[in-house]
UniProtKB/TrEMBL annotation:
Site feature Transition state stabilizer, where: R72
A single GO BP: response to oxidative stress
Annotated residues for binding of heme b: H203
Binding site for Ca(2+) 2: T204, D255, D263
EC number(s) reported in the record: 1.11.1.7
Reaction catalysis annotation: 2 a phenolic donor + H2O2 = 2 a phenolic radical donor + 2 H2O
Cofactors that this protein relies on: heme b; Ca(2+)
GO cellular component labels: extracellular region
Record domain Plant heme peroxidase family profile: where: 35-336
Entry keywords, A to Z: Calcium, Disulfide bond, Glycoprotein, Heme, Hydrogen peroxide, Iron, Metal-binding, Oxidoreductase, Peroxidase, Pyrrolidone carboxylic acid, Secreted, Signal
Active-site residue list: H76 (proton acceptor)
Stated role: Removal of H(2)O(2), oxidation of toxic reductants, biosynthesis and degradation of lignin, suberization, auxin catabolism, response to environmental stresses such as wounding, pathogen attack and oxidative stress.
Protein name from the UniProt record: Peroxidase
Length: 338
């Protein structure tokens, strides 16, 4: 009992330590400010947030999964060179697109929605709103549109002049990475164990391909047996559409209970051993701190929402380009002067 109380105290401290705060903006020497703040476009493009939201809402109304895809796009942007829209660049000249990396190829989506938002914003206020901020706002709007929390987004990111396919291959966790490897990849980005569990909660929406979890169904540890932390009945159902070979691209909900609603069923599923990815289930089975967090979020949706919003702001603040660094791209797929 005493141990579990002190664990809760540690968790509360970790969660609080991630609360961000910032002073009121004033750029030194007249240059653009070197930090992010929510009012960044209030004068230069007052309708920016409204335009992003309306186009995201239209896209999600057309296809519910798009909310999930846009949240993931932000994650895969921020974990590679920071939240700088590097993930949006197509290959050309010296640029090798991150779109072809192992985690992204045949998997990452939402690029056309970002293009549509960018085109609308270039019309409304040319050369003003960065692609990196568009992706960040789209992730927030997507979350709240499908039932998740809403939060204020610090703004003022600028766009990268390059991409890193190596960074994309190495920094983004794989679904069969060990718990330690995943936690290390988060810590390298300044995110802690609470951020890891809260942000993994975005797997309450969206889909995964068979190829991302097949190993669990047949030969998890090389002994020819399925993952013993996966419910046997659930595994049998998954095997019907995810065979030993073939069907790589077949799609499955990450949260089979409420796949298009942002809620805490993801965590309840983990407790029932019905997490889809190995990286999901290990949060409940591999570490006492993450196990406790899974239980807390499964029991308290409000706490999950609060931590999720806080951790999304923290992830969105990973090494942004500000001031005179980078540029404001005209087309999110290309640098302005290749
Ligand atoms: C903790 C480590 C993580 C791992 C190993 C991981 C892995 C994956 C994998 C393998 C998929 C399915 C991809 C496919 O098969 O096409 C997926 C989907 C998804 N991931 Fe993660 N993920 C992680 C963390 C995150 C985080 C931090 C976020 C956002 C905050 C996120 C958001 C999503 C969403 C929303 C989807 C569904 C996308 C869609 O339906 O288009 N994931 N993830
Ligand atoms: C993880 O999955 C990749 C891609 O399917 C595979 O090449 C690798 O061997 C797997 N790693 C482990 C430790 O099982
Ligand atoms: C399981 O994987 C191991 C190591 O990768 C391999 O040697 C073995 O043949 C596999 N077993 C089955 C039944 O696929």
């Amino acid at each position: 009992m005493a141990a579990s109380i002190s664990l809760l105290v540690v968790l509360a401290a970790l969660a609080l330590s991630s609360a961000s705060s910032f002073a009121f903006p004033h750029g030194h020497g007249g240059g653009p400010p070197a930090f992010l703040f929510p009012q960044f476009y209030d004068h230069s493009c007052p309708k920016a947030q409204q335009i992003v939201k309306s186009i995201v809402a239209k896209a999600v109304a057309k296809e519910a999964r798009m909310a999930a895809s846009l949240v993931r796009l932000h994650f895969h942007d921020c974990f590679v060179k920071g939240c700088d829209a590097s993930v949006l660049l197509d290959s050309s000249g010296t640029i090798v697109s991150e779109k072809n990396s192992l985690p992204n190829r045949n998997s990452l989506r939402g690029f056309e929605v970002i293009d549509e938002i960018k085109a609308a914003l270039e019309k409304e206020c040319p050369h003003t709103v960065s692609c990196a901020d568009i992706v960040t706002l789209a992730a927030r709007d997507s979350t709240s549109l499908v039932g998740g929390p809403y939060w204020e987004v610090p703004l003022g990111r600028r766009d990268s002049l390059g991409a890193s396919i190596q960074g994309s291959n190495n920094n983004i966790p794989a679904p069969n990475n060990t718990f330690q490897t995943i936690l290390t990849k988060f810590k390298l980005k300044g995110l802690n164990i609470v951020d890891l569990v809260a942000l993994s909660g975005s797997h309450t929406i969206g889909l995964s391909r068979c190829t991302s979890f097949r190993q669990r169904l047949y030969n998890q540890t090389g002994n020819g047996l399925p993952d013993f932390t996966l419910d046997a009945g659930y595994a049998a159902a998954l095997r019907t559409r995810c065979p030993r070979s073939g069907g790589d691209q077949n799609l499955f909900p990450l949260d089979f209970v409420s796949p298009t609603k942002f809620d805490n069923f993801y965590f309840k599923n983990l407790i029932a051993k019905k997490g889809l990815l190995s990286s999901d289930e290990i949060l409940f089975t591999s570490n006492p701190v993450t196990e406790k967090l899974v239980e807390l979020y499964a029991a308290n949706n409000e706490l999950f929402f609060e931590h999720f919003a806080q951790s999304m702001v923290k992830m969105g603040n990973i090494t942004p380009l500000t001031g005179n660094h980078g540029e404001i791209r005209t087309n999110c797929r290309k640098v302005n002067h290749p």
